[in-house]
Amino acid sequence: MTKVAFVFPGQGSQSVGMGKELTETNETSKQYLEKADQVLGFGLSKLILEGPQEELTLTYNAQPALLTIGSMIAARLMEEGISPEYTAGHSLGEYTALVASGVLSFEDGVSLVHKRGLYMNEAVPAGQGAMAAILGLDGHRLKEVTDAITAEGDPVQPANMNCPGQIVISGSKEGVAKACVQLKEAGAKRAIPLDVSGPFHSSLMKPAASKLSDALDGVAMSGAKIPVIANVNAAPVRNEDVIKGLLVEQLYSPVLWEDSVRTMLELGVTHFIECGPGKVLSGLIKKIDRSATVLSAYDEETVQAVVESAKGWS
After folding, report:
1. What pTM did the predictor assign?
2. Are both 17 and 40 inside the same structural domain?
3. N or C terminus: which one in the chain shows less Cβ crowding within 10 Å?
4. 201 part of the active site
5. What does the pLDDT profile of the chain (314 residues) look like in tens digits?
6. Catalytic one of 90, 114, 201, 271
7. What Cα–Cα distance (Å) separates residue 81 from each residue in 99, 222, 242, 311?
């Protein structure tokens, strides 16, 4: 029996022109861009469709942009009769999952992640934080190294547990630089600095988490109609109060993406549909379990391909 999960990408997947075809062929999709502009009070739709890429990539623009496109695609698939048994998203993508699962309205979601981006940007001034992808090292050994560097006064910690052999670290610029050297000495194949605007999912984000908690208190949330697999504990959640607490914790805790995918597989998920630009999550899921069926929906052609494929599911 087919069990479907919708998964939503996080920052880094944004690109100028994403969703353009969908808004040209579907009136409901177009309305998502219009609603986002109304809620935010500026031309997010112009940034999404025309750029420039540098401005779209700023965290407080990229977050509402990705949520808008992911929500648009999920709504389109549901309109075509494809409904997920579970949703999940990578970091920012978790908010898109919450919109798809009915926890947040689209309007509240897009407003909330814009604020989240602003808080994250304010927490650590540009240039003071960093992130890097570490390839080919065991998670336990990695944590030993980062814990030792943090104890010496330069905070750095595991931030994204993406798939076997790929862990992203996050922290102060000095901490990440030291970790890259020491982790290679400890056996990592590669340490790749990431082009990001802050040390996301590290303890340095705690000031942003405090502000986010206040913002969440002002938002109406409902119990999830579709269970959401949370980043913080890789477990399905439905209760809105539990979700609220996990979203605050998510800002400074590792994204347990590999564990989240394994949870969905254990729950019987057979088909993963990545709703949004790029194929980052699709690639990670395949590295976690080659036997999983993974589809990407990001433009008219790929949405139609998913719809056609779904006709053969039982």
Report:
1. 0.96
2. yes
3. C
4. yes
5. 899 999 999 998 999 999 999 999 899 999 999 999 999 999 999 999 999 999 999 889 999 999 999 999 999 999 999 999 999 999 999 999 999 999 999 999 999 999 999 999 899 877 789 999 999 999 999 999 999 999 999 999 999 999 999 999 999 999 999 999 999 999 999 999 987 778 999 999 999 999 999 999 999 999 999 999 999 999 999 999 999 999 999 999 999 999 999 999 999 999 999 999 999 999 999 999 999 999 999 999 999 999 999 999 97
6. 201
7. 17, 23, 29, 10
Residues 13, 29, 71, 91: which is the catalytic one? Answer: 91
Here the tokens at position 21 are: 């075809």
- One domain, residues 102 and 211: yes
**Is residue 102 located within the same domain as residue 183?**
no
46 with 93, same domain: the answer is yes
Domain range spanning residue 63?
A: 4-123+204-310
Specify whether 271 is catalytic: no
Same domain, 74 and 148: no
Q: Which of 196, 215, 248 is the last residue of a domain?
A: 196
